[in-house]
Amino acid sequence: MSLPVVIVGGGISGLTLAHAMQSAGVEFVLIEGRDRLGGRILSAGIDGLPSEDGFDLGPSWVWPEIQPVLCSLAESFGIRLFPQNDDGDIVFERSASVAPQRFPALQREPRSMRIMGGTASIIAALKSRITPEHIRLGTGVTGLARIGGLVSATLERPDGTAETMEAAIVVLAMPPRLIDRSIKFEPPVDPALARRWRSTPTWMAPHAKFFAIYDEAFWQRDGLSGAAQSMIGPLGEIHDATTSSGKAALFGFIGVNATERRRIGPEPIIQAAVQQFVRLFGDKARTPVATLYKDWAADALTATEEDLIATGHPLPDTRPWVSGDWAPVLMLAGSETSMTNPGYLEGGAEAALRVAADIKRMWQRFSKPSASASHL
User: Region 299-328: what's the mean pLDDT?
Assistant: First the structure.
């Protein structure tokens, strides 16, 4: 099977690129290793399963003033935003020997906004606009080989068997670290390039989030915003996670590093997090309807061993992400490769549209008849 374009990765980058290819009439297939689309975008319901009106276990916030690409994409799909709740006091927990203190919250600019229905609303909108035959779930890419002017991709099917697929261009809409770890290249990529891929931090990979879901947002009635900062933990930064449809919840980023989380296991962390909410917000926090826990460092399709230690946020880098023999046929389009907002939803959309523009320019050149042919 040979195609003009194979896209590897079904997160916001891969899906945005797929949508652009379909709109341009360029044949493609999108391959995703998970059994769902979205990648690091995951909105889950109270049962922990993916939901189109859920709690954002991955990224939550957007900032329209500084993220025009993503917000334009959302607007084109009729997706609406709503402000992160920050009305009320913030709670600060300094030490175990001092009771948590309340302070008036300061208005942040630009204000953090959230997506109605959760960030998965964008994934659902993109998916609905892509012909299902173009998407293959539960399929990994383990190898890429240059054969003449084409790329031969080795695919691992859900049943463990392998197949090959040829393409004129392969776009890896994945974190560079994950590419380096999971895909074998023939010929090998330049060692300096491979080192750069390995040294690029993967957005979300070192982090874990905890949610406690309640019957009501009782903290709001008590004059609290739901925001808190803690020097004790296990949660370091806490916010109101109530959905646009009114499902009440609090969430926090777990301040325990990934290696220690792996050693402890999730249950003790969950129990300690609920007790922390009791300290910060009162006894009504003791009995959540449900809890959700997502450790991205334990997600094999997100994180590598290099991601167990947080090393900062990826920074914009204008150098080419592919060089040498692979430059004409391989492109990278994950969020980390964005020229403007690496490691954000905005970056994923920007990187995808930039690569889409490059592919469309190439296809226009290939499809134009030569001057001699026009006179035949």
Answer: 91
